[in-house]
Amino acid sequence: MKGALSWPFLRLYLLTLLYFSGNSILNVIIPLKGESLGASNSTIGLIMGAYLLTTMFFRPWAGGLIQRYGAIRVLRVLLTVNGLALLLYTFTGLEGYFFARVLQGVCTAFFSMALQLGVIEALPDKDRAQGISMYSLCSYLPGIFGPLLAIGMWQSGETGGMGLFAVSMIAIAILTGIVGFTARIGGQPDDTASGEEGRGPAGASGREGERRSPAAAMLRATIQLGSNPHLFRCGVLMLSASVVFGAVTAFVPLYAPQIQGGNAAVYLMIQAAVVVAARFLLRSWIPSDGKWRSSFVGGLMMLLVTASLAVGLSPSAGAALFYIGAVLLGIAQALLYPTLTTYLSFVLPKAERGVLIGLFIATADLGVSLGGIIMGPVSDLTSYSSMYLICAALAAAAALLALQRRVRQASSAS
């Protein structure tokens, strides 16, 4: 096999799968643990949201540092810190969980940027969408088996301690370290940093990018979030969609028992399985030509609206509608992110592409965080059902932006 499915890239996808396995278990364990300790939805949402809220702040900075120093060096440091964070979950309470989520957020900012920039720079244009889609696929693949494992661990913990949970976190930390410390990104050697003649191993962008400090690059990128119409539109769409994704991840484990026949593990497994299947089977549908497809993106946003409505109306309509919502949400989640990321990889200026894509991904992180942090108090004041209907209204407003065919003129990739 060659291109996006060659062995060096398959190894990176395996590393992605292992890295995100821990989070797929924690997404179920943390809400259940919080509820058992009497925590409010606001507190649970804060702990869940701390992960990607931290990622959001560090991701643009991560893009600049990776371009400057190289992905391999950064990757090995963050895998060590991530292993320590996983160990914290094995012997601490909610306060320790919060701190561990923050550490994981920092690690994920650098991990995802290192791998995605490596894929973007190492693959030719025609294979770029497939590479991004395969990375995203493997980041969601643990969601198929993670929820069931988490439920089993929780039930085991209620009767005999959290030994199985602790063993799983330690095993994930060790396996991720082994694969990560032997990985290569883009076929570059370990000691290669961004050189004087062009790009480094994670896509350093030449002398101009090297002269600019990470902080200055991040400030410039933040300004472009408002001034660059391509980045602004994609960022708003990703932010809105991610609020829905975050609200589902944080509160479905607590919401499902209110639905007759509803099961959180089954819902999350269906959603993750659809994400994986759609990203693999439909990866050729993702545009890879740098053109804005308003009907395609708008259709994905309307799927998200329908999914939110299905989840919100499930207490009165039954579990069948609940699981239909999982399917629709999975399709939207599978295609929206790689579509927008691939589009931006063509239209953003190459000299700042790493930092700007980092900023775009930060909007996704912020949205998922707000799905827990803001929607938690909303559900406390109203109900889970009403909260998901509010999510549907937010997605519908964003769909109108997606359907706009033109944006004002802006600089594109050279």
TrEMBL record:
SUPFAM superfamilies: MFS general substrate transporter (SSF103473). Keywords: Membrane, Transmembrane, Transmembrane helix, Transport. It is a multi-pass membrane protein. The chain crosses the membrane at residues 12-32, 44-62, 74-92, 98-120, 132-154, 160-181, 230-252, 264-282, 294-314, 320-344, 356-378, 384-403. Residues 189-211 are annotated as: Disordered. Pfam families: MFS_1. This is Multidrug MFS transporter.
